[in-house]
Amino acid sequence: MFNYQSNAHNVEELTKENYDSCNSTSPLAVYTTPPARVTLNKTGPHYFICGVTGHCQGGQKLAINVTGTGSSGTSPSPVATPPSGTTSPSTNPSTPSPSGSLAPPPQNSGAASLGLVGVSATLLSIAAAFF
């Protein structure tokens, strides 16, 4: 999702060549109404710029490379559970936690694979910060 001020910015998807040169004369797609929701449903590179004159040259551009084995429409895989015999970190008895608060969940060191949709949503959230 790209959030930007209406009539001050836009989002244009371009080829790599046009992205590299900030050439928006023939965009693949143009989004002019914020917030712009862009679904990346295929793997590979995707190139976005602000097509307002001078904005791309000023750094308002974003390249996203979508990778993974997930397919569009699938949910991210669940997080792996710790192997048996692993214990949760214990709290330090000399440092009491505030009344009524819960200790944070244990960190999981196992790698979990994310589906394409989860990766896309995360990358687009990051991209919104650039616009």
Report the major sheet. 4 strands, antiparallel
The residue-averaged pLDDT reads 70
The CATH topology assignment of the domain at 1-73 and 114-131 is Immunoglobulin-like
CATH class of the domain at 1-73 and 114-131: Mainly Beta
The number of helical runs is: 2
Strand content: 5-15%
The appropriate CATH architecture of the domain at 1-73 and 114-131 is Sandwich
Helix content: 10-25%
> For the CA atoms, what is the radius of gyration?
21 Å
Order of helices and strands: EHEEEH
Describe this structure in words.
- A four-stranded antiparallel sheet has the order 2-1-3-4.
- The model is unreliable at 74-131 (pLDDT under 50).
- It is of the alpha+beta class and 131 residues long.
- 15% of the residues lie in helices and 15% in strands.
- The protein starts with 10 loop residues before the first strand and ends with a helix.
Descriptors for this entry?
131 residues, single chain, alpha+beta, Immunoglobulin-like, disordered C terminus, 2 helices, 4-stranded antiparallel β-sheet
TL;DR of this structure?
The chain has 131 residues and is an alpha+beta fold. 15% of the residues lie in helices and 15% in strands.
Task: Describe how the helices and strands are arranged.
Layout: E1 11-14, H1 16-20, E2 29-31, E3 44-49, E4 61-66, H2 116-130
Antiparallel strand pairs: 1-2, 1-3, 3-4
